[in-house]
């Protein structure tokens, strides 16, 4: 059995087209099935939206993390961040390996944007240590993100064994490109795409990506390959493009 595995991060825009006119949940599920990731980190996952369930026949009745988990045959965990009377959304982690949900870290810093980091541990076969997954969605304003970087740094330092392999991924909204300095250096992380190509991946907007908003940072893991999934069908499914990395363990630490 190969010791490599694939992780994908993807902001799915609540399963809707960029202008919220069409349901894209089934198309996203089919496209992700074709990718067949071992670990999937999703942002803007709709846990419930009663109005859309009534308005659109193809909008799932069940939570989207459960829908994708069943469709892709993956274990799933959901972290609820933004809660409204008839709807809520957040982050999700799905895994082909055994999955142990740990904590949904609240990194909200203003009333307009409810953000979180979903902490799970997965157990690939024959590993001597758990693989820590942190699925994040950060704010739009740099001033807010600087506080969230510090919150993530403190959480990792205070909670997670520094010898365990770790993936911190998601939508960082980092259009000013400050995450590497604020997060990676302090935690000993490397960005998977940067490690191969020397530059950050452009993932937004999906039809003509010019901004690097989505990241996969890793620690105690070797990056075998990194890719942004361009073109059809991805350009019509969400406002973000997904990115993947093929990784393998580095147990020398």
Features:
single chain; 253 residues; alpha+beta; Deoxyribonuclease I, Chain A; 6-stranded mixed sheet; 6 helices; globular; nuclease; Endonuclease/exonuclease/phosphatase family protein
- List unreliable stretches of 5+ residues: none
Tell me the CATH architecture: 4-Layer Sandwich
**Number of extended strands:** 12
Strand content: 25-35%
The CATH homologous superfamily is termed Endonuclease/exonuclease/phosphatase
Could you tell me the radius of gyration in angstroms? 17 Å
CATH topology: Deoxyribonuclease I, Chain A
The residue fraction in helices comes out at 10-25%
Order of helices and strands: EHEHHEEEEEHEHEHEEE
Residue-averaged pLDDT, rounded?
Answer: 93
Instruction: Find the structural class using helix and strand composition.
Output: alpha+beta
Distance between the termini: 23 Å
Largest sheet: 6 strands, mixed
Spatial sequence of strands, sheet with the most strands: 3-4-2-1-12-11
Total number of helices? 6
| Name of the level-1 CATH class | Alpha Beta
Q: In the residues, how many domains can be counted?
A: 1
Principal-axes geometry comes out as globular
């Amino acid at each position: 059995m190969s010791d490599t595995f694939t992780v994908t991060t993807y902001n799915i825009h609540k399963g809707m087209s960029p202008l919220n006119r069409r349901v894209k949940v089934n198309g996203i599920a089919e496209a992700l099935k074709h990718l067949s990731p071992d670990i999937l980190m999703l942002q803007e996952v709709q846990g419930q939206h009663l109005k859309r369930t009534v308005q659109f026949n193809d909008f799932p009745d069940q939570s989207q993390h459960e829908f994708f988990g069943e469709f892709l045959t993956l274990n799933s965990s959901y972290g609820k961040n933004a809660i409204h009377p008839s709807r809520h959304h957040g982050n999700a982690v799905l895994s082909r390996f055994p999955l142990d949900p740990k904590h949904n870290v609240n990194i909200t810093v203003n009333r307009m944007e409810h953000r979180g980091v979903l902490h799970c541990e997965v157990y690939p076969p024959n590993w001597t240590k758990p693989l820590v997954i942190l699925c994040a969605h950060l704010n739009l304003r740099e001033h807010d993100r600087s506080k969230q970087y510090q919150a993530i740094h403190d959480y990792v330092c205070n909670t997670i064994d520094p010898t365990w392999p770790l993936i911190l991924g998601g939508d960082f909204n980092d259009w000013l490109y400050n995450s590497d300095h604020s997060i990676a250096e302090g935690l000993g992380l490397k960005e998977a795409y940067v490690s191969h190509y020397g530059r950050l991946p452009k993932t937004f907007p999906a039809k003509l990506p010019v901004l690097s908003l989505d990241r996969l940072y890793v620690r105690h893991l070797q990056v075998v390959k990194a890719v942004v999934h361009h073109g059809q069908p991805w350009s019509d499914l969400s406002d973000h493009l997904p990115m993947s990395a093929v990784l393998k363990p580095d147990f020398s630490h």
